[in-house]
Specification:
The protein has about 375 residues and is an alpha/beta fold. It is about 45% helix and about 15% strand.
Length: about 375
C-alpha cells in the first residue's frame, strides 16, 4: 500500500498543478521553455494486439481524442496495431520513423526486441514514450501502472476468497507472456502474496498472452490435478481468465473456483456479475491514455514544466536508468464495487453490462439502469 499511496500522491500533484495553472508558469506563459512546435503535430501510436479489448475500444480512441483536444483540433494520431506480431510491430515502428512523426507512443510486444527501433527513432530526433509496458532502449518517458501492485492485488484476492482454507488449497497459476516486460512484475507481485500461503500445484506461462494457449494449459492442469482439486486460478489477465473459465466449464464444473483477471474487459466484468470470475485488476486506463497523450504533446511542444509534473516517478530498464515515469494506481474490481469503478469512471454503462443475459444477476447486486 505504500507504493499505491506514493502513486496517488504523485498523480494528484500533477493534476493539481494542471488545474491550478501552476504548470503554466508565472504570468500565464504556456511553458518554461519556448515551444519546439505548435499544435500541428503528429503522434505515432503503436499498440500490441487486438485480443486485449481495451486497446481498440479505449486506449486508441482516448489518445486520439485527447491529442485533438490539446492541439485545438490540429494534432493527429497515426495508429497501428501489431496483432501480436513482433516483426509487424517493428515494421510499423520503422514506417512511423520514415513518416517523421513527431513522437511515438509504443506498447511493446517484446521490450528487448524493440530497443533497436527505439534507437533509430532517437537518432532521427523522434522521442519515444513507452506506454503500458516498459520498453528497452533510449525511451524518453514511461506511463503505466504499478505492475507489481497488479500482481499483489490479484494474489490478495485469491487469499481473501480462500479464507482459512488457503494453506491447504491447491491453485493453478496462469501467467502471461515471458516476453512481455510486465510479466515478471505481475508474477513477482502475485508470488509475494501467494508463496508459502497456498500450494501452487501447476504453473504455466502463456506465449503472446494467447487465450487458446491458456485454455490448452488449463485442460492439462484439470487432467493432471483433477477438477475438484483446483481451489483457485491466478489468471494474469482477463483474456486468460475467460479461457480458463471456459476450460473449467468444458470439463463439467458446476461451480467455478475463484479466478482472477486484469484489464476490466467488458466480458470479464459481466463474468464477475454472474459469479464466474472472482475479480479483475482494474487499471484506470482512461487516465493512463489521457496522461500518455498529454506527455506526448508536451514533449513535442517543449512544455517542460507540464511534462515534469506528469513524470514525478522514475523507473529503470535493463538499458536505461531513472526514466521519467507516471504510474497510475490499481483497484481490485469485484461485484461489490462495479458501480464505484468502471461505471463511475464512464468506462461502461449499466446498459453495457446488464444485457438480457445478465439482467437477473445485475439486479441481484443492485445494478439497475
Amino acid at each position: 500500500m505504500r507504493r499505491l499511496a506514493t502513486v496517488l500522491t504523485a498523480s494528484a500533484s500533477a493534476l493539481a498543478l494542471t488545474a491550478c495553472g501552476v504548470v503554466d508558469g508565472i504570468g500565464g506563459s504556456a511553458s518554461s521553455a519556448s515551444p519546439k512546435k505548435g499544435d500541428d503535430i503528429t503522434v505515432g501510436l503503436l499498440l500490441p494486439d487486438k485480443d486485449t479489448a481495451r486497446f481498440e475500444d479505449f486506449d486508441h480512441p482516448v489518445i486520439k481524442k485527447e491529442v485533438a483536444a490539446l492541439t485545438h483540433g490540429k494534432g493527429k494520431v497515426v495508429y497501428a496495431n501489431a496483432e501480436a506480431s513482433q516483426d509487424k510491430q517493428s515494421r510499423q515502428f520503422q514506417e512511423m520513423v520514415d513518416q517523421q512523426v513527431d513522437v511515438i507512443l509504443v506498447d511493446a510486444l517484446d521490450a528487448k526486441a524493440i530497443a533497436p527501433d527505439v534507437q533509430k527513432a532517437k537518432d532521427a530526433g523522434i522521442p519515444v514514450i513507452a506506454y503500458d509496458r516498459l520498453a528497452q532502449g533510449p525511451i524518453a518517458a514511461y506511463v503505466s501502472h504499478d505492475n507489481e501492485l497488479v500482481g499483489e492485488v490479484q494474489g490478495r484476492a485469491i487469499l481473501e476468497a480462500l479464507g482459512n482454507k488457503a494453506a491447504t488449497s491447491r491453485i493453478v497459476m496462469m501467467n502471461g507472456d515471458p516476453e512481455d516486460t510486465n510479466y515478471a512484475r505481475f508474477k513477482e507481485g502475485a508470488l509475494g502474496e501467494l508463496k508459502d500461503r497456498v500450494r501452487i500445484a501447476k504453473e504455466y506461462d502463456t506465449a503472446k498472452w494467447s487465450p487458446a494457449v491458456a485454455k490448452a494449459n488449463m485442460k492439462n492442469a484439470i487432467k493432471t490435478l483433477g477438477l475438484d482439486n483446483i481451489a483457485a486460478v491466478y489468471a494474469a489477465n482477463d483474456g486468460l481468465a475467460g479461457a480458463v473459465i471456459q476450460a473449467l466449464k468444458d470439463a463439467g464444473a458446476t461451480r467455478i473456483p475463484p479466478v482472477t483477471g486484469q484489464d476490466a474487459n467488458l466480458d470479464a466484468v459481466q463474468r464477475i456479475v454472474s459469479g464466474e470470475q472472482y475479480m479483475t485488476a482494474y487499471k484506470p486506463f482512461l487516465e493512463e491514455a489521457t496522461r500518455a497523450a498529454e506527455m506526448a504533446v508536451y514533449k513535442v511542444q517543449g512544455r517542460d514544466i507540464q511534462f515534469d509534473a506528469l513524470t514525478r516517478d522514475t523507473v529503470d530498464s535493463p538499458t536505461e536508468k531513472k526514466i521519467p515515469a507516471m504510474l497510475v494506481p490499481v483497484v481490485s474490481l469485484t461485484k461489490d464495487n462495479i458501480k464505484d469503478t468502471v461505471i463511475t469512471d464512464g468506462v461502461y454503462s449499466v446498459k453495457d453490462i446488464c444485457t438480457p443475459k445478465y439482467a437477473t444477476a445485475c439486479a441481484a447486486i443492485g445494478l439497475r439502469g
